[in-house]
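Subgroup meeting minutes
Present: P.N., E.W., G.H.
Scribe: E.W.

1. P.N. recapped why we're keeping a running log of single-chain structure predictions: easier to compare across weeks, and new members can see raw inputs and outputs side by side.
2. G.H. added today's entry (92 aa).
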Amino acid sequence: MIKQIIINRWHTFAIDWAPERYIFYIDGVEMWRVTQNTADGAGNKPGICQNPLHIILSIEGAEWAGRLPVGFTYDEMRVDYVRVYDSPKFAE
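Output recorded in log:
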């Protein structure tokens, strides 16, 4: 999925984080979602964090993003802006 992103142009990355799920978007298109009931291949179910966290912008790699090309030595990420919204809290 991630490998299909065209380089050398601006993109919008988003995460919709709710108590029961994460939904990840690239350029307004849902790319993947994780819920409390989503199990990986080993049957492990992730927890959805309920604690406030800090935002870290990074270009670190991960297995799900694919392997780096042979000879890869450097990359960069340019960020135009970061926008954070706090969703309304609903009474239970």
